[in-house]
From TrEMBL, chain A:
Identification of the protein by name: Xylose transport system permease protein XylH
UniProt entry keywords in alphabetical sequence: Cell inner membrane, Cell membrane, Membrane, Sugar transport, Transmembrane, Transmembrane helix, Transport
Known function: Part of the binding-protein-dependent transport system for D-xylose. Probably responsible for the translocation of the substrate across the membrane.
Organism: Pseudovibrio denitrificans
Superkingdom as given in the UniProt entry: Bacteria
Membrane topology note: Multi-pass membrane protein
One MF annotation (Gene Ontology) recorded for this entry: transmembrane transporter activity
TrEMBL record, chain B:
Protein name from the UniProt record: Monosaccharide ABC transporter ATP-binding protein, CUT2 family
Gene Ontology MF terms: ATP binding; ATP hydrolysis activity
Keywords: ATP-binding, Nucleotide-binding
All residue ranges annotated as the ABC transporter domain in the record: 6-246
Species of provenance: Pseudovibrio denitrificans
The organism's taxonomic lineage, starting at the top: Bacteria, Pseudomonadati, Pseudomonadota, Alphaproteobacteria, Hyphomicrobiales
SUPFAM superfamilies: P-loop containing nucleoside triphosphate hydrolases (SSF52540)
């Protein structure tokens, strides 16, 4: 004992044998941790490793077109649409709750958005605000029911999965006079300055300039093959960055982790757990609304099947990204990579000779592997044996 | 002697027809460890819950720094400087030590309109406060789940002291710990006492109490059996008081030693 305690003279002044014991036990058996085991503790590790594997797989099996600029935009667009949902789902899962209604929420908010513009003839600006407000209200309703009743969010949002899908069908028929597809949205927003942020491509001049300088592939006419980054991808990147910043660098991040880790302990420490969960439900619903707006403006119409089963894909992407089903652990950047894996496999299979329906097999397998992997990581983090 | 930080006079607590506390008086001086001993069901938990604002006493008065106080909620008690470290600890195992330490009171820095969690400052303070308690962290980012039970207790105690607790109530902090970890927690209590904080140490283990206690109060069936100063009472006497004497003596004889 003497050797260790001698180096800590400040402890000695108290002449307390017990403090010597404390110092010794803190120091003697602690190994210096390597960079690798440090990385092993990051929740997004699994997703990054998975992405690397999938990329290698397609580098060998797929047509080389897949990894051209056009090919990348091709798989990044569905990845982005799923990813926006997945980032919302990931934050909510870290906060300890589920939302199974996000897929239906996409259809429901798509209906609100379409009806606002076509039926009520609102300008794009107002329609977007109405859509987000409707989403936030539904999210708040989900959250309030979960918080006030103490029922598992799994059940409450499962109910809303059906309720919102049903409302979308009924609403669409009412708005169109019997059809489940609402058309004619494109002409409503054409020419609006705001439309640039929610449809089409961004940075088009840059891509033309790159094409002129010969940096990127062009058609024979000299027009670039890719004339911008689809706005979906921009939104996806932005959201991933903001969510990651909130989780890791703001106090709200701590509150989200705490609410999901142990809501009792969190509220004992003064964290407004109910508020945190409420806002997370609202944020998740707003992510669904964003996806609805982006995809509806892209298609120019909305229908009742929009967002079908997306809730499961979003949750799977979040789990691949390292979120624990029990809450309190995970990352937004992981969900980001998880979604890219999805887009890559969904689109990538069409560049190969493999039957595309393997996609579903892949989906299930990834989920299973990810859950097993996450459990292992959690044990490492908490030092459970 | 200085005046007590917290003084509780003739506290009674009734739950329906059950009298959980029948007139308990208790005080905590600055810089002392006052042990509250008693067997299971003696009323220790009810008593400290009254002290920490969870229960309102049916009768009796609570004085903090000589001022009469009525605690409507645990938050009132916390605002008066009475902090409780519960058995369940209010710690989140999957979160880092720093985040746990500052949970609910995160230091923020402003960058224009954006305020962010000041990790550098938080880490520094956490490391420093923990090393004052005799635990040198290898990194403040490690999850609380990797700490031993004793170390977790120490984080909870360090947190309470850092955030200005004048009285620290420790509810059976050693009951689930091994020998060495118990020693760590007891030495932490000693350090806290030297800062002038009053410590209320709830235990049913006489040896743990004797190791750090300045005064000892024994509860039995909702009543105090008196308060003794260190040196005025032996471990055996305390043990007898806790269990009600006779029966235990004969039990011990048949078991061949002090329980």
């Amino acid at each position: 004992m003497g050797g260790v305690s001698a180096s800590l003279s400040s402890m000695q002044t108290e002449g307390n044998k017990m403090s010597d014991l404390a110092v010794e036990s803190a120091d003697e058996r602690v190994k210096k941790i390597s960079l690798i085991s440090r990385l092993m503790k990051r929740p997004e590790l699994g997703a990054i490793a998975g992405l690397a594997l999938v990329t290698i797989f397609f580098l060998f099996t797929a047509d080389s077109k897949m990894f051209t600029l056009a090919g990348i935009m091709n798989f990044m667009t569905p990845a982005a649409q799923l990813g926006i949902l997945a980032i919302g789902a990931a934050l909510l899962m870290i906060g300890g709750e589920f939302d199974l209604s996000v897929g239906s929420m996409v259809a429901f908010t798509g209906l609100i958005f379409g009806a606002a513009m076509v039926t009520f003839d609102l300008p794009l600006f107002a329609a977007i605000i109405v859509t987000f407000m409707a989403a936030a209200a539904m999210g708040a309703l989900n959250g309030q029911i979960v918080i006030r009743t103490g029922l598992p969010s799994f059940i409450v949002t499962l109910a809303f999965l059906f309720i919102l899908r049903g409302l979308s069908l009924v609403g669409l028929k009412a708005a169109t006079g019997g059809s489940t597809q609402l058309r004619g949205i494109r002409q409503e927003f054409e020419g609006s300055w705001l439309a640039e942020f929610f449809s089409g491509e961004a940075f088009t001049p840059l891509f033309y300039w790159l094409a002129e300088s010969g940096w990127i592939d062009t058609f024979k006419s000299g027009k670039p093959k890719v004339d911008g980054i689809p706005v979906d991808i921009i939104w996806f990147l932005l959201l991933a960055l903001v969510a990651t910043w909130v989780l890791l660098r703001s106090r709200y991040g701590s509150w989200i982790f705490a609410a999901g880790g142990d809501s009792n302990a969190a509220s004992n420490s003064g964290v407004p757990v109910r508020k945190v969960k409420m806002y997370l439900f609202m944020f998740t619903a707003c992510c669904a609304a964003l996806v609805a707006i982006l995809t509806v403006m892209d298609a120019g119409s909305t229908d009742a099947r929009r967002g079908f089963q997306k809730e499961f894909e979003a949750i799977i992407a979040a789990v691949i990204g390292g979120c624990l089903l029990t809450g309190g652990y995970g990352s937004a950047i992981g969900a980001f990579f998880g979604s890219i894996i999805f887009g890559m496999v969904l689109i990538g299979l069409s560049y190969t000779n493999i039957d595309q329906d393997w996609y579903l097999v892949f989906l299930g397998s990834m989920l299973l592997i990810a859950v097993l992997f996450n459990n292992m990581i959690r044990k490492r983090v908490t030092g459970e044996r | 002697m200085t005046s007590p930080i917290v003084e509780m006079k003739n506290i009674e607590k009734h739950f329906g027809s059950v009298i959980a506390l029948a007139g308990v008086s208790f005080s905590v001086m600055p810089g002392e460890v006052h042990c509250l001993l008693g067997d299971n069901g003696a009323g220790k938990s009810t008593f400290i819950k009254t002290m920490s604002g969870v229960h309102k006493p049916s009768k009796g008065e609570i004085f903090v720094d000589g001022q009469k106080q009525v605690f409507e909620s645990p938050r009132d008690a916390m605002n008066s400087g009475i902090a409780t470290v519960h058995q369940d600890l209010a710690m989140i195992p999957l979160m880092s030590i720093t985040r746990n330490f500052w949970l609910g009171r995160e230091p923020v820095k402003k960058f224009g309109p954006i305020s962010y969690f000041d990790h550098k400052y938080a880490n520094e303070v956490t490391m420093e406060e923990m090393s004052k308690m005799g635990i040198n962290l290898r990194e403040p980012d490690q999850a609380v789940g990797t700490l031993s039970g004793g170390e977790r207790q120490t984080v909870a105690i360090a947190r309470a002291v850092y955030f200005g607790a004048k009285v620290l109530i420790l509810d059976e902090p050693t009951s689930a710990l091994g020998v060495r970890q118990t020693s760590n927690v007891l030495s932490t209590m000693d350090k806290v006492r030297k800062k002038g904080v009053g410590v209320v140490f709830i235990s049913h283990n006489v040896r743990h109490a004797m190791a750090v206690g300045d005064r000892f109060t024994v509860l039995n069936r909702g009543k105090t059996l008196g308060t003794a100063k260190k040196g005025e009472i032996t471990a055996e006497e305390l043990q007898d008081l806790m269990a009600g004497g006779q029966e235990l003596a004969s039990l011990e004889a048949s078991l061949g030693g002090t329980v």
